[in-house]
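Usage

Read records sequentially. Each one opens with the input sequence:
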Amino acid sequence: MHRKSTVFMILGVTSIAILGGIIISKKKKKKSTKVDLSPFDSPDSPDSGKCMDRKFIQMLQKLEQETKYPIFKKINSGARTAYWNSKVGGVSNSAHKIPKCKAADIATPTTAIRNRIVRAARQVGFKRIGVGKRFVHLDNDTSKRQYVAWGYPKGAKPAINPFV
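and closes with the structure output:
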């Protein structure tokens, strides 16, 4: 009887060890979805990047995965106070403005990178894309016209339009 209980105890401990290893392995494989939102802060309002729309952030994460471009390290402008939006010449109903927080401008140092970002942004699901010479504006503001691309300065034809 003593021998039988020892065998069962060894089997039990072994099973627990194996299951523990599997659980730990799965936890390690999960990637952290936590994003540092400070690059989205309005320069005149610390921690304002925390207002960024969660679906918008998820779309940017997907864009970063698709393009292998460090989107979150290349944010020129994210959330904006009304003052900052006015200072940079943003439109009065800008998707950047707090509390909307549904837009970002991404620095693109070359035409090739800019064009890659624009094409992939459409594939990821962005329906509003502004195309500058060295940046791309993306937003997911559904209160505005969808499937549109525009250029800068305001009114200019975009250098690349993924919707045509």
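Summary fields computed downstream for this record:
- The chain has two domains: 1-30, 38-151.
- The mean pLDDT is 89.
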